[in-house]
Design a protein that fits this description.
Elements (H helix, E strand, L loop, with lengths): L19 H14 L16 E4 L2 E4 L1 H19 L3 H7 L5 H13 L3 H12 L8 H17 L6 H10 L6 H8 L8 H22 L3 H15 L21 E2 L5 E2 L3 E4 L7 E2 L48 E2 L7 E2 L16 E4 L2
Antiparallel strand pairs: 1-2, 3-7, 4-8, 5-6, 5-9
Helix pairs in contact: 2-4, 5-6
Length: 352
């Protein structure tokens, strides 16, 4: 039989104003296993303390044995309540007396308490808590209302749980609501939501790029840019090539086609000559000697800085060869380091 010191290992919670049902369920299981429920449920009756024997009263040994067990159960009750609750039963002398006092205080919530429980259940949300904690919280509120005589139908319970889920569970919610079969029970919904939570976590882990994968991406980007001092005309230079094998990616909507100009005073007579724009100054890195960037943004100095690099414009999926033009016109100059705005009176037409 469990002693007062070992009861804590069998009843994992201490009674407070919010967990009466859980506490009672655990303690009842212990008392039933030891055949001691009769000391608290009112069905057991204590034997008389004294009995007449040989014309005189003597102490009844059955009463002594009963009282020992009754005090054992009372010690279990006192050992499994919080200090705030203990003050309410400190003067009780039997297990039944303490049990009834606690049932009156916590087993039947006040009307105000019932109203607060209903409001909390109506607006409960999963938030950042895990699925198990969320469902346990909902079940606790429902059980507390049920103990107060306010029964929650199974379909209403399922609807409350679904309403509290975040948007990433919308596909599962839709399939449940639009299903031709009846609403799942709480146990069935519990399994569905735990499986969905696990699945979403696996998907999140799959799409999360590891630091090693980011390093591989940046290394590939650096290889495309080139490591030599090539004299090609594009931004992406090879290892010393001279221009015809180099490529321009039109991430700034660059147009590497032949331009023809139209004189504003005689628009019917187009000039078939190439538009001349101011020469573009190409910067050279003071650290690695490569062109197209400065030491401030050099990969060789601070490779980690490029691990967070994000492009401001989405690039075209196609690559175009460098035509060899001395100047290029781009739609946006936001990504150019050295640029000059054309202020002349001539205009440009683009032809295929």
């Amino acid at each position: 039989m469990a002693s007062s010191s070992s009861i804590a290992s069998l009843v994992s919670v201490k009674l407070n104003r919010d967990n009466y049902l859980l506490w009672r369920s655990q303690l009842e299981s212990v008392m039933i296993s030891q055949d001691l429920m009769k000391f608290v449920d009112g069905y057991g009756e204590a034997p008389p303390e004294m009995i007449a024997r040989n014309d005189k009263d003597e102490l009844n040994h059955e009463f002594t044995a009963w009282r020992k067990l009754d005090q054992l159960v009372l010690s279990w009750i006192k050992a499994t309540v919080s200090e705030a609750v203990l003050g309410q039963i400190i003067r009780t002398h039997s297990a039944r007396e303490a049990w009834v006092a606690l049932e009156k205080s916590y087993g039947s919530p006040s009307p105000l308490r019932v109203m607060l429980l209903k409001k909390e259940l109506m607006f409960i949300k999963k938030g950042n808590s895990d699925m198990t904690s969320y469902l346990q919280k909902v079940k606790f509120l429902v059980d507390s209302l049920d103990a107060a005589g306010c029964h929650t139908p199974s379909e209403d319970l399922v609807q409350i749980i679904l309403n509290g889920l975040p948007s990433k569970y919308e596909s599962l919610i839709t399939s449940i609501v639009t299903s031709s079969t009846k609403m799942p029970s709480f146990v069935e919904l519990y399994d569905l939501l735990l499986n969905q939570e696990t699945r979403l976590q696996l998907i999140k882990n799959d799409v999360t790029e590891s630091p090693m994968e980011r390093q591989v991406t940046i290394t590939a980007f650096n290889t495309i840019r080139g490591r030599g001092r090539g004299r090609g005309r594009g931004y992406y230079q090879g290892r010393g090539g001279r221009g015809r094998n180099q490529f321009l990616q039109p991430t700034q909507n660059q147009f590497n086609k032949q331009m023809t100009s139209v004189h504003p005073n005689n628009p019917s007579q187009p000039h078939h000559q190439q538009t001349t724009l101011p020469p573009k100054k190409i910067v050279e890195c003071q650290y690695c000697g490569r062109k197209g960037h400065t030491a401030k943004t050099c990969w060789d100095i601070n490779p980690r800085a490029f691990s967070a690099l994000t492009l401001q414009e989405s690039g075209d999926e196609y690559w175009y060869p460098d035509t060899g033009a001395t100047n290029n016109i781009v739609a946006s100059g936001n990504n150019l380091e050295n640029k000059q705005t054309y202020s002349g009176s001539e205009s440009v037409m683009v032809g295929n």
